[in-house]
Amino acid sequence: MATKSAPKKTPKQPASRKPTPTPAKPALKQLSFAFPFLRKGNGKSDASTRFTDEHDIYRLLAEREPSGTYLASSNGMWHGGIHVTEAGAGQSLDLDGGLRCIADGVLIAFRANKTYPVSKIAATDTGSPYEAPYSTGFALVRHTMEFPRDTKLTFYSLYMHLMSWDDYANFPKRQKPSYWPRQWLVTQYAQDKSVSGKNGQAPDPTQQGLRVRKTPSGVVAIGILPQGANIGIGKIETKNGKPWGQLTDLHGSSLYPQEAGAYVEPSSVIGGWVFLGQENGGPVVQETVEDTLFDQVVVVTDQAKPGDTSGIPIKAGDLIGHLGRYDSLNQRSSGARIAHIEVFCDDSIESFVEQGRAWVNQHGPRKEDWVALGLPSDPTILRIEPGTVLYQRAADNKFVQGADPQSRKTDRVQAYSLAELARNSERRVPEPRPNPDPGFPVSWWHVDGVNERGQPIDGWVRDFNHPGGGRVTREFAQKWIDFQCVSDAHDPAHTIFAETQAWVDHASGENVPDRASCSKLSPLMLKAYDALFTKGDGSRAADEVCALSKTEREGYPWLMQAASRLIVKHESEWANPSKWRQLIVELEKRTGPKPQHEEEQKRIEKLAWWDEVMAGVSGFPGPQVFHIHPVAFVGNFFKGDTCACGCCLGKVFNRYRWIRQRRNHPPQTYYGPLYVGTKKLDKCTGWDDLIAKSKATEDEKAIVIAMSSNEGNMDAVQAWDWQTFSAGAMQKTVTPEGYGELPQQIWEFQNENPSLFEEIFGRCGWSIKQERGPRIYYSSSDTANEKITGQELYVFIKKGFQEADSGFPKESKPLASIAHAMINEEYQKKQVVDFIGRLHIAIAKKPSGYRNSASNFFLSRLGRALVLDHDVNAPGNVSTDLGTSINTLRARHTGLSADPAQWGDNRAQYENELIQIYGPSRHMNSAVERYNHLRGLL
């Protein structure tokens, strides 16, 4: 481009230099959250699903776990977490799926039992001796969140009473936690061998072992682990129904090269993947473990990458362990299983909450201020104050107070996730013309509540300017709405009473004045009581605190939810075990010595871990910490999915007309829906994770992103040709018979992520069956809930988008759910990994007439991207066209070797010339334009 000369100006005094623009600050990192367990499927073959609503968990805990309630147990002891038992809430949970980490973080300490410790109760006059196993296993995870900018909170999640190593042998379906540093022995059944070298070197037949691959079940091999090698395995994944493990350590083992005569650097295979199944008549690896791992606190300080916070990275929803044994010392019951889950942090929580609230109060309505932080600008919580009348819905979609509105006036604070409410279209009615108009969509929502008589009520509220009294607001999670920090003195023996003796009186039913009165509570628990109970005289305060899970008339446990918003400072149960001696001393004044008391003290001492972690983890707080209800914490920040099954897409599908031209066939016109999508592959949220886990490289990222710009968006869906439809970045297809690349990809995803498959595909009507290959089915109320596939599905998908139809753009519920699933974070990663797999397949092809693969001729990003581009669009032409291009190159340079490894110092020059020949000459659609586009990017 020609440049113009600037006009001459009269000389002036030197102007002050313009300040360098301040670079934009990075977006605040948003933690992902997950509830700590999975919901059991409805049948033996049904996959478990994630909890998405905290209310469901409170109902379950209130009904099944009355003794392990947050704040206080049923026997009057302080309790800083929640209990889940196999016999209680576990009946509704996927126990094989185990406990799940509640948020992204790093695991900093754990203890694993080899076998469970055993409490031995001696024989007494009234009973025989017995043994009671119990778990001291735990996992401790550190998390950090930031809001507003430069204001951070470090908190910890704890998972106690985890399953022992030996107990896993009783549950073959249960996967051991990946953070246990296990070793695997390569057995004699691993018989992979090197291939012949490039110069004809023959492999040594005695060198046999286990091949290390770049990706699970991938075609690219890195090296071979010898038989007898001990290796470390971290993450384990299932690929096409087969188990694969990711290498974390070689423990000094050497490797055989993939090609005879070559050398493989041991460090290059770390992060690679090995097969963990059976071949040649037996297991190719056997799991081993060092006894030094067990029955001690292991502080993890050196397993992170340089620059990372020390610890083992773990994601929200990752497996953390399974319920372990915890047999009672008093009930002589065997086989009891339990887990204790809690969240705690230091005193900084008080200022963190205050600063978050102050920022939201000042900046909440200003979308641009949220954008500057890189955060969503819409509230996520619907809050209904006490005194709000729940309206009734009339037949014409009008909302009225109805008869006796006082009986439908709420008496407790209600808080709902807007994302969760939006999952059920029957709970939402948009307000067509709000007056005044607040500038955002206004809706009526169907909610539940309780009135002042304790009766369950339900009805409708409007999320802006709710009529009839009361107050309904939309709140930001960062405001910590209704959470309250509480601190004061408490009983050192961890009862809810001011004095331990008062607990003994209450527990034994002693006839003393005001035995349960609020005057007997500790100052701390009195504050908690006053926050929860605004009515009554307090004469039964202790009983009321011990019954927070109680519900009236099978209603909702509103007290339990209210208590979940109290952030209470209290000494940890897991520190200073001697504190319990005073409790036993006072108790035995009434009961006399009992063997159970002595065994209980032994248990308490073995369960403690705080001092050991504090000594090994920098910055770990002292035992006086604030406790946060784990379900309430997750419920407040859980993002959920406001576009469940694609409901947010709305009318975005246009009709597309396409004419198919074929030799010796008349032109054929097709019509069908088209959605171009919005999510480009370079915006995939999982690139860093894939690269960190060695599932992708920076070169592969650059190639795939450049290549994808010639393809569709990650959420693009179209159904306008002879196929049923296609979707995703590579536009994988569903054939008119219901088969194809997309059903194959979704089937693999189902095997790898069964619960997530159910969430983003299954509950939206899509299913996969194995019928001579993966075949896709769809069902909904529009199909009379019948599963359809093949020609019936073909016609159904295209219905309403034919030549005679009108009213575009319009909705397409089945394709909207597909588009929505395509941009789920894990499915984005699946698309990327498949794209990379296609790259490996493409560059593994050999040019016609040559022994070397395309990857040997092209080392550059551009060269490999051209081969991938060619293979995606005209796979049958790659070998021929590349062979012809190499022939042209060699004709220009007489004597040029057919082996690119022999091209010497001019290798890069020859490759660049080959690119210029091959790129525009490829037999495919728009070869020149696509070549120029890729060249401009790479």
Structure description:
By secondary structure, the protein is an alpha+beta fold. The chain has five domains: 24-54 and 85-122 and 129-181 and 293-373, no CATH class; 182-189 and 204-272, no CATH class; 381-475, no CATH class; 644-835, no CATH class; 844-937, no CATH class. It is 26% helix and 21% strand. Strands 5, 7, 10, 11, 23, 24, 26, 27, 36, 37 and 38 form an eleven-stranded mixed sheet that branches. A hairpin with a 4-residue loop joins β42 (725-727) and β43 (732-734). The longest helix has 19 residues, at 825-843. It is globular, with a radius of gyration of 32 Å. The two termini are 22 Å apart. The relative contact order is 0.09. It comes from Burkholderia lata (strain ATCC 17760 / DSM 23089 / LMG 22485 / NCIMB 9086 / R18194 / 383). Residues 1-11 have a biased composition (Basic residues). Residues 1-27 are annotated as: Disordered.
Q: State the helical fraction.
A: 25-40%
Molecular shape: globular
Count of DSSP-assigned helices:
24
Strand content: 15-25%
- Largest sheet descriptor: 11 strands, mixed
Computed Rg: 32 Å
Quote the average pLDDT: 88
Structural class determined from secondary elements: alpha+beta
Number of domains: 5
Biased composition (Basic residues): 1-11
Protein name: Calcium-binding protein
Organism: Burkholderia lata (strain ATCC 17760 / DSM 23089 / LMG 22485 / NCIMB 9086 / R18194 / 383)
Region (Disordered): 1-27
